[in-house]
Amino acid sequence: MSMVRFKMISAYHRYMIVTNRFPFKKFQTAMRKRTFFIITLAFGALLAACSKDPISDLTYEDTQVFFTNHDKEANFKDYKSFSIVDSVYIISNQGEGTSLSETDLAMITRIIHNMKQMGYEYVGPDDDPDVGITLELVDNRYLNLVQIPVGGYWGGYWGGYGGWGMGMPSYYTYQQVQELYWIVNMLDLKNPDTANQKLKVLWNAQIRGEGLYEPSLVPPMVDQLFKQSSYLKIN
Amino acid sequence: MNRHILAICAFLFAGLGISKAQRADLYTLESPYQRYTHNLATLRWLGAVPLGSITDGYVDKPSFANYSLSVEWVFRNMPLSAGLEAGKYYFEQRYPRAIYTVGQNEVSAVKTSTYTAVPLTGLIKYHFLGTNARLSPYVQVNIGAHINTYTDYFGILADQKKQTTLGFGGGAGLKYFFKNDGPVGLDVAVRYDQNTFKYGYITNGVGTLAGSVGLFYRWW
Fold first, then answer.
1. Number of domains observed in the structure of chain B
2. What ipTM was predicted for this assembly?
3. Which option is the CATH number for A60-152+168-232: 3.40.50.2000, 3.40.50.980, 3.30.160.670, 3.10.180.10?
């Protein structure tokens, strides 16, 4: 037995071996059982780790989640007219500002369409509207410094490299995360809180998920917000 | 001369007698699987249905993505074995778009409800016809821990809870050895598992009723 191996065992075991009293057979059996346990637990962990992504098959539309909430004391029949912002306000950790892209315009137009369907009259911002609608897009981007990739498999596209992994230097460390969602607010312009200089939010809506900036998906997205907010209907 | 022939004959007869006795011993000797405490590993695939409060709006569909691996020590001179079992139950159900109330909000989403349990338990098994019968019915009890993962997806947004709880269960099964005294065979069983996990829709633990088919291997 090499000295290196010898140093790894305790003084008691060394004494037992030197004096020929060490029960090698028992030791072997114990080691075999221990190995066996480790294999079992490893296999259990392997079973636990093999899980599929249950939402990988969702379409863009199915990934979208629509949140709405409203002032429970408000009687929407008291409000007759509305106005809406002429552009989308971008809230971003990269900077803020307004935007009027094709998608933004589609959102505004579709909100106007739905509000009219609910019985409200569309008026200009200077025509004393009862409610005002704001539209915001939250677009935050973060650069997380993490080791990529998490797994080392590259897909096996090129033949001749079956079972090969990827050699990834440890300094390949970046990952971008984007948070993108829409916020729609309906403000009470009829009863402004002049003392505190605040406008009460009568209705709030958020759209989260994927495909939120696809112009073709805008109409069903906006329609869903109003469909689940039937209390807004005044006609 | 005659004395010599007689002595040789006596020796041959004696030898024949010993050899016969030895052969008889060989055939009446118990199998090593009866003489020694030995090891038994069983890999099972399970079809399972969830039971209890998990079926109240969360998941009530059966699942066929369940596995288990057990390792037992089969004791000599008694119809018992004891060991460890690790496995996995996975249940999933997709609901079409609907409106849910979450806090004060109305939330419209396609909901995907998933629940995973990884049972890590100790087991004791009683074999009605002994541990070496070619067709060996048994009952077993398990107790240990279940590692639970509850993930309720609203679209791509997840409400998740991970928790380890007490888990226990029992079952009855049948082992069939492909050969007498052989090491390999088929295992079929039904079992019930229960844990004390509570979160969201699950208010009173998760029960699972499962049927399993497996293969086992024993060695000593």
1. 2
2. 0.75
3. 3.30.160.670
User: Could you tell me the residue range of the domain that residue B5 belongs to?
Assistant: 1-30
Q: Is residue B25 domain-shared with residue B132, that is, in the same domain? A: no
A158 vs chain B: nearest CA distance in angstroms? 31
Nearest CA distance, B130 vs chain A (angstrom): 24
Residues from chain B contacting residue A55 (CB–CB below 8 Å): 112, 153, 155-156
Of A36, A64, A72, the CB nearest to B155: A64
Strands (E), chain B: 38-51, 63-74, 80-102, 105-127, 135-154, 157-177, 184-195, 207-219
Per-residue pLDDT of chain A (235 residues; tens, 9 = 90+): 334 344 455 667 667 777 777 777 776 677 667 656 766 666 666 555 566 789 999 999 999 999 999 999 999 999 999 999 999 999 888 788 899 999 999 999 999 999 999 999 999 999 999 999 999 999 888 876 665 555 556 666 676 666 666 666 677 667 677 889 999 999 999 998 888 888 999 999 999 999 999 999 999 999 999 999 999 999 9
Distance of CA A4 to the CA centre of its chain: 52
Query: Do B187 and B126 fall within a single domain?
Result: yes
Residue A126 CA to residue A112 CA, distance in Å, equals: 17
Closest CA to B219 of A39, A38, A31, A33: A33
